[in-house]
C-alpha cells in the first residue's frame, strides 16, 4: 500500500469516530509505529484536525468532514500529468508546494479513480533532453511578493558573467520558457523593467516594505521588450 492510500485509509477510520491507537493502526497496515506517527503528522500538516488523547490514541475533532468534491477520471489524469510536468521544474519550492497541494486533492479521489491515477502515473514519463544543472528555491516566496507588492532585494549574476550585482526590485510578473522561470521586475538600479532568471538569483530577501503598483501589463511588456537571457 502506498503512503497516500494509507493516509486516506487512516482518515476513513478516524472519520468513523472510533478512538484509534498507534499500535492498532500499525498492526492493521503492517507498518511500524514510527511510520504511523509520521502519517499522523502528515494528516495534521494537510489540515486534518487529529486530536491526540494522551495515553489513549487518536480521534478526529468533532464536526470535521471532508468536502464532497468529486473528480472525473479525465480530471484526475490531467492532475497526474501536471504533476509530472511540474516535477521537471528547476525550482524546489514550487515542486514541494505543488506536490503538497496535490496530495490534499488526491485525498478526495474515489477509490476507483485513485487506483487508475496510480496506474497512469506508472505508465507515463516526461523526458528533458536539454539538461542544465542549475536550480532555484525561490519561486514560492517570489510569488507571494508579487501578489502582496513587497520589495525584494537580490544578489544577481547574469548568464556568462561572474560578477554579482545587488538589486532592489519590484516584482510584477513571471513566466516559464525552456524550463527556466523568468521574473519581470522594476529594477531600481536600472530605473526600468528588467527580466531576471530566477535560477540566477543567488540570494534574496523579501522586504516588509511595500511598493505602489505601476499597473504593469505582461503582454505590453512582451511587445516592447521580448525576453532574452540576461
TrEMBL record:
The lineage of its organism: Bacteria, Pseudomonadati, Bacteroidota, Flavobacteriia, Flavobacteriales. This is YafY family protein. It comes from Flavivirga aquimarina. The keyword Transcription applies. The keyword Nucleotide-binding does not apply. InterPro entries: ArsR-like_HTH, CBASS_pafABC_assoc_protein, DeoR_HTH, HTH_11, WH-like_DNA-bd_sf, WH_DNA-bd_sf, WYL_dom. Keywords: Transcription, Transcription regulation. SMART domains: HTH_DEOR. Residues 3-58 form the HTH deoR-type domain.
Amino acid at each position: 500500500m502506498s503512503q497516500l492510500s494509507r493516509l486516506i485509509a487512516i482518515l476513513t477510520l478516524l472519520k468513523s469516530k472510533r478512538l484509534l491507537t498507534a499500535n492498532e493502526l500499525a498492526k492493521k497496515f503492517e507498518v511500524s509505529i514510527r511510520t504511523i506517527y509520521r502519517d499522523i503528522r502528515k494528516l495534521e500538516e494537510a489540515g486534518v484536525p487529529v486530536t491526540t488523547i494522551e495515553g489513549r490514541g487518536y480521534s478526529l475533532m468533532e464536526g470535521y468532514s471532508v468536502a464532497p468534491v468529486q473528480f472525473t477520471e479525465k480530471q484526475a489524469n490531467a492532475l497526474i500529468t501536471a504533476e509530472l510536468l511540474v516535477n521537471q521544474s528547476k525550482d524546489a519550492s514550487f515542486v514541494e508546494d505543488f506536490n503538497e497541494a496535490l496530495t490534499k486533492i488526491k485525498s478526495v479521489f474515489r477509490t476507483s479513480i485513485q487506483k487508475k491515477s496510480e496506474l497512469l502515473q506508472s505508465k507515463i514519463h516526461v523526458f528533458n533532453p536539454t539538461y542544465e544543472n542549475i536550480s532555484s528555491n525561490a519561486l514560492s516566496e517570489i510569488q507571494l511578493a508579487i501578489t502582496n507588492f513587497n520589495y525584494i532585494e537580490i544578489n544577481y549574476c547574469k548568464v556568462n558573467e561572474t560578477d554579482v550585482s545587488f538589486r532592489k526590485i519590484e516584482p510584477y510578473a513571471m513566466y516559464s520558457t525552456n524550463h527556466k522561470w523568468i521574473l519581470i521586475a522594476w529594477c531600481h538600479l536600472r530605473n526600468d523593467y528588467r527580466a531576471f532568471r530566477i535560477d540566477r538569483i543567488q540570494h534574496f530577501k523579501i522586504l516588509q516594505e511595500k511598493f505602489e503598483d505601476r499597473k504593469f501589463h505582461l503582454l505590453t511588456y512582451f511587445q516592447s521588450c521580448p525576453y532574452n537571457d540576461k
